């Protein structure tokens, strides 16, 4: 704040991957540091991590999150209304976090997030069989049975995000590209070959939300492999 942020009239708080999770976690606290007349919004890229079982049926990612919560005493910054009814580790997942956030937020994520497929669904500890190893490296190698499993992950994400439909000043762009963190590279963020939903690329949709050019900026893609604009992205 001392370096000039205190003089800001418009503020965008953002991060990708673990930084996207941190954006969701600290959004309201960050917003509270500014006077009410300052426009503060939060933008989380690839931070919507899911509480789902891995391919072996274990909640290995939940166990990982639980260790983070314990090690860093994350409970102190979790929403009290969630803690009143749920385990602190559950309250660390974005599914629960977004229910209590009051600051306007935009969620950018792939419903087939490559990092989550590789590390949440198919971690090394789950001992995935050889066909899954090929699938986790490249979604184009997945067979129809495996795609159905990935579709279930997508459906979980879409269902968890339904709460956003009741938040008029929120936005989202959920595509079906096998990728992770789409704000870091021009090819995915804003280029002639960027992924598109409703004939708009990510930068256009986020801009419409941020500057209030349109209401209810909430875009959700169809199931993989329906979106041909995903094909130009580099390997995850």
TrEMBL record:
Its EC number is 3.1.1.-. PROSITE patterns: PROKAR_LIPOPROTEIN (PS51257). It is an enzyme of class 3 (hydrolase). One of its GO terms (molecular function) is hydrolase activity. The keyword Hydrolase applies. Keywords: Cell wall, Cell wall biogenesis/degradation, Hydrolase, Secreted. The keyword Transcription does not apply. GO terms for biological process: cell wall organization. It comes from the Eukaryota. Pfam families: PAE. Its main location: secreted. It is found in: Secreted, Cell wall. PANTHER family: NOTUM-RELATED (PTHR21562), PECTIN ACETYLESTERASE (PTHR21562:SF81). Hydrolyzes acetyl esters in homogalacturonan regions of pectin. In type I primary cell wall, galacturonic acid residues of pectin can be acetylated at the O-2 and O-3 positions. Decreasing the degree of acetylation of pectin gels in vitro alters their physical properties. Belongs to the pectinacetylesterase family. This is Pectin acetylesterase. It comes from Aegilops tauschii subsp. strangulata (Goatgrass). The lineage of its organism: Eukaryota, Viridiplantae, Streptophyta, Embryophyta, Tracheophyta.
């Amino acid at each position: 704040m001392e370096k000039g942020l205190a003089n800001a009239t418009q503020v965008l708080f953002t991060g990708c991957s673990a930084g996207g999770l941190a954006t969701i976690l600290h959004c309201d606290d960050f917003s509270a540091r500014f006077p009410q007349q300052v426009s503060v919004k939060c933008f989380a890229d690839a931070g919507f991590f899911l509480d789902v079982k891995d391919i072996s049926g274990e909640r290995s990612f939940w166990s990982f999150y639980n260790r983070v919560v314990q090690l860093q005493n994350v409970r102190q910054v979790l929403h009290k209304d969630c803690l009143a009814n749920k385990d602190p580790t559950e309250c660390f997942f974005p599914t629960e976090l977004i229910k209590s956030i009051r600051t306007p937020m935009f969620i950018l994520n792939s419903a087939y997030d490559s990092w989550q497929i590789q590390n949440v669904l198919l971690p090394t500890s789950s001992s995935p069989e050889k066909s899954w190893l090929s699938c986790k490296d490249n979604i184009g190698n997945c067979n129809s049975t495996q795609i159905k499993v990935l579709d279930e992950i997508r459906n979980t994400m879409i269902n968890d995000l339904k709460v956003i439909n009741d938040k008029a000043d929120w936005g989202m762009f959920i595509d079906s590209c096998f990728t992770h963190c789409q704000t870091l590279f021009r090819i995915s963020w804003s280029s002639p070959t960027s992924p598109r939903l409703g004939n708009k690329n990510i930068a256009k949709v986020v801009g419409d939300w941020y500057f209030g050019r349109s209401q209810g900026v909430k875009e959700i893609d169809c199931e993989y492999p329906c979106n041909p604009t995903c094909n130009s992205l580099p390997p995850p």
